[in-house]
Amino acid sequence: MPELPEVESIRRQLKPLLVGRYVTESNSHPSDKFIAAREIVGLGFEAVLRRGKYLLFILDNGSEMIIHLGMTGQLIPGLDLSDPHLRAWWKLDNDVILGYRDVRRFGRIRIYSSGEYEGTLKNLGPEPLSDDFTVDQFYDSLKRSNRKIKTQLLSQLPVAGVGNIYADEACFHAGIYPGVRKLTRAKTAELHHSIRKVLSRAVENGGTTLRDYVNVDGEQGNNQHYLVCYGRDGEPCINCGEELRRTIIDGRGTTFCRSCQRR
Ligand SMILES: [Zn+2]
């Protein structure tokens, strides 16, 4: 699933293609998940922003089109309209067609009045790479819940944009077992630092490609070569050499080191 770095990579490429352009024609699969794509014909793109794992297309009538890519969503200029996994498309005033392709159909397209969001987007925690994400705020937020740390991260409430890959990476770098429920302030500060480190490096590397993720140019990311924990169960820990283990935490596969991330 695309997490913050993958969505940010897509945003950076879409912005110059869309800003200043308007939509002349559009169509979508009739599913409720995608039908809102049709509502922006005649509207122009003022900005392409991101919150957590959501893409925000700011339109010139004060509304926003929000896209969550789900597991396998891809935004591809020039996508062949006969692609069997095409779910929506928008034709721009320069005749470029932006296609939304989504093999597993867990993605969603929504239209909101400016800032009037619902659901997860409404309750997202702060952006991890912004000044809004502070150790104090993070500590207070984690303290309010008794859920496991990894589950809290995946909830998007204490901080936005972290999914399974970067949760495992950040907990590993901070030496935190992802199944603990309480962190000291010092450990919270380490996790805060690790989240920023793993996400900013992944953005620099254009995201992580394990299966489906490709950017707007159809290219894979490069960050998979920098993962030291996620998906490496059975391989030696880079810190201590012990074999990394896999466990399930609240239903999510999780990789960790038994000696570096003690319970
Ligand atoms: Zn270790």
Category by helix and strand content: alpha+beta
Give start-end ranges of low-pLDDT stretches.
none
Bound molecules: zinc ion
What amount of the residues lies in strands?
15-25%
Quickly count the domains. Answer: 2
Spatial shape:
globular
CATH class of the largest domain: Mainly Alpha
Radius of gyration: 19 Å
Helix-strand topology string: HEEEEEEEEHHHHHEE
The major sheet is characterized as: 4 strands, antiparallel
How many beta-strand elements?
A: 10
Measured between the Cα atoms of the first and last residue, the distance is 27 Å
Report the CATH architecture of the largest domain.
Orthogonal Bundle
The percent range for helix content is: 10-25%
CATH topology (fold) name of the largest domain: Helicase, Ruva Protein, domain 3
Mean pLDDT: 96
Strand order of the largest sheet: 1-6-7-5
Number of helices: 6
What does this structure look like?
- The chain is of the alpha+beta class.
- The chain has two domains: 4-122, MutM-like, N-terminal (N-terminal domain of MutM-like DNA repair proteins, Alpha-Beta Barrel); 135-256, Helicase, Ruva Protein, domain 3, CATH 1.10.8.50.
- It has six helices and ten strands.
- The strands form three sheets. A four-stranded antiparallel β-sheet has the order 1-6-7-5, with no helix packed on it.
- Strand 3 (54-59) and strand 4 form a beta hairpin.
- The longest helix is centred in the C-terminal third of the chain and has 20 residues, at 185-204.
- It starts with a helix and ends in a 7-residue tail after the last strand.
- 37% of the residues are buried.
- The mean pLDDT is 96.
- Residues 237, 239-240, 242, 257, 259-260 line the site of zinc ion.
